[in-house]
Design a protein that fits this description.
Blueprint: H1 22-42, H2 48-55, H3 59-65, H4 69-94, H5 97-117, H6 119-128, H7 130-153, H8 163-171, H9 182-198
Helix pairs in contact: 1-2, 1-4, 1-5, 4-5, 4-6, 4-7, 5-7, 5-9, 6-7
């Protein structure tokens, strides 16, 4: 087993991604998927050896792609933000505005779940690379704003809604106690929030 490199005291931003051979890209994708699932299930303390084993690669391969745990966490965080923002666009094309908003808010619970699993490393990364996190985090409220604007314009949610208030309500899920039923409870709360947004809307069926 390859020796684990000494951990840096300060997180270093992930290097710019270069074009990889097909097999190398496949290994990288498998590592990101395995790490995301492991952090969600067991938290940030999951050993890198276990992540490599889940991905079906050697620990040396993991370190070639991600020199430190923080590099890996940053890449996963980027992916979670990107997927959440892409989901807003895809849902808006597929569903009526209020349904798209409701579906996206349910996906926000999954984003929060992933973020909770990486909480400790994210704190370190925010301190060392705050500009990146400010930019990434700003994309999520912008995605929510578009969905809310469309739903208001369609008359399917109340017109007196501020997207910042909705984001504040959604973000409150992050501080809820992490119990066995946290995910299910959070999704029920989001559904109740959506019922409140629909109540009194011009074209609401509530």
């Amino acid at each position: 087993m390859a020796k684990r490199p000494a951990k840096s005291r300060q997180a270093v931003p992930a290097p710019a991604e270069k074009a990889l051979r097909a097999d190398a890209q496949k290994n990288r994708d498998k590592l990101i998927k395995a790490a995301g699932l492991a952090f969600f299930q067991h938290g940030i303390d999951t050993s890198l050896e276990e992540i490599a084993e889940r991905a079906g690669v050697g620990i040396g391969t993991l370190y070639r792609h991600f020199p430190t745990r923080e590099h890996l966490v940053e890449v996963i965080y980027r992916r979670e933000v990107e997927e959440l923002c892409q989901a807003a666009e895809a849902l808006a094309r597929k569903y009526p505005p209020d349904v798209a908003l409701a579906e996206w808010m349910q996906r926000f619970v999954d984003y929060i779940a992933a973020k909770r699993g990486m909480a400790d490393s994210l704190k370190l990364l925010v301190a060392s690379n705050s500009e990146f996190f400010a930019e990434s985090s700003g994309r999520i409220p912008a995605a929510l704003q578009k969905l809310i604007d469309a739903a208001i314009a369609s008359g399917t949610i109340r017109a007196d809604i501020e997207s910042s208030d909705v984001m504040h309500a959604l973000s409150g899920i992050y501080g809820a106690p992490k119990t066995a039923d946290w995910r299910e409870r959070s999704k029920r709360l989001v559904a109740l929030l959506m019922d409140g947004l629909r109540f009194g809307a011009v074209n609401s069926k509530s």
